[in-house]
Amino acid sequence: MTSYIEPLAQESTPSIIADKLRKAIGHGEFRPGAQIVEADLARKLGVSRGPLREGMQRLTQEGLLVSIRNRGLFVIDMTPEDIRDMYLAREAIERAAALKILRDGDFETVGLALLAIVDQMAAADGDPAAVGELDIAFHELLVRLADSPRLSRMHQTSIIETRMCIHALEETYLATDARAVEHHRLADAIRTGDVDRTDDLLSAHMDDAIERLVSR
Amino acid sequence: MTSYIEPLAQESTPSIIADKLRKAIGHGEFRPGAQIVEADLARKLGVSRGPLREGMQRLTQEGLLVSIRNRGLFVIDMTPEDIRDMYLAREAIERAAALKILRDGDFETVGLALLAIVDQMAAADGDPAAVGELDIAFHELLVRLADSPRLSRMHQTSIIETRMCIHALEETYLATDARAVEHHRLADAIRTGDVDRTDDLLSAHMDDAIERLVSR
DNA sequence: GGGGTTAACATTGTCGACAATCTACCTTTC
DNA sequence: GAAAGGTAGATTGTCGACAATGTTAACCCC
């Protein structure tokens, strides 16, 4: 039972704006390489350029936007090299998260929670968009349950970049069956507390993802 | 030989401000928990509050500043829990960097470059501040040579947090001998391309650092 | 036609001013 | 004397305006 009385942390406007921008980029509302025109976007969001610029600086720090002086901010364009680098970072983060759970967390509960997502994945078989969402949900849950503010924050950025990749390929991001199997194995390894197997599977999972995204 | 003709990327004002703030925080010019008063700082930096706020948003995204609405931005206060979490993230990043170097980098050259820093460390024996700087230089070089934009960006934040911890303890952060030995072993493991040993040493190195920082 | 100059336009960068909010202190009341 | 209420000061949040910069296209010259 959680108390109703808790510190009410009102989010700052720039952080709300940053969230919205992240969602928009992740869902393909801004194409890779596209310029973000401040005045237009400010009008659409119903704020002035000040707070908007502050929010955009956050995404720039994350590397989702790149700044060119006196020209503007542009959505990052994910090259194959970027995709590899992103998965390098993602694997580092998720491995650390998994390891923390296996070492001093309730890995059995976590494993079962992950398996629940895998079940949904199997149920959603055939719908690539749904499977894609569940894929991301799986990895987000894994990191969240590791209960590490820093890993979570870093992971957030990687997830947006992953979304960008998936969205760019849209219909062609297939192999839903194989992915369900990979996730099932991974969740199982965590449930049983098998460190080495988790490590290997996670690594292979990331390599497969790179392969799927870069090869085409 | 590098070409003189290269894209001239002028940094944006907010990013310059963010760099200055990071340095200031890392060197203890702003105490943990201290409020950053916009008007004062803007005057000192010779800019208006707009660009300054944009720069501060970057540090907020990194987690070096925390925002409380209508009250201001405050330098993060590193609790023992924060220290542990920071080292969890740092280990994840540096491990990935080391692994990448061992797998598809010139690990021998990297190992020698790292050993050069260890030599300086031995030469600077007795001066805790110098050893501290070299300690950080060692880890920065390791990640930089991995040549991963994302790992580098994430590592930058962790390094500032590390600096905060070292600075907070100031004179009492000792055990310079033990640290030189640890770094020497680590550099050697990389030079010889020993993946497992690198992994173990890095892990132990981080644990020791946590112990040194938290125990007091 | 190619290269260079100029001018209009669009966009970003910066600033100062005002509104909203919070804190701290003082006053009032019971 | 303690608690509630009110007030002044300081700080942050937001906005609109202006300056600086870059881009585009038309125009001119060779």
Automatic annotation (TrEMBL), chains A, B:
Q: Which InterPro entries match?
A: GntR_C (IPR011711), TF_FadR/GntR_C (IPR008920), Tscrpt_reg_HTH_GntR (IPR000524), WH-like_DNA-bd_sf (IPR036388), WH_DNA-bd_sf (IPR036390)
> Which CDD domains does UniProt cross-reference here?
WHTH_GntR
Every HTH gntR-type domain range: 11-78
From the Swiss-Prot or TrEMBL record, give the protein name.
GntR family transcriptional regulator
Molecular function via GO: DNA binding; DNA-binding transcription factor activity
Name one matching Pfam family: FCD
Keywords of this entry: DNA-binding, Transcription, Transcription regulation
Protein source organism: Kribbella soli
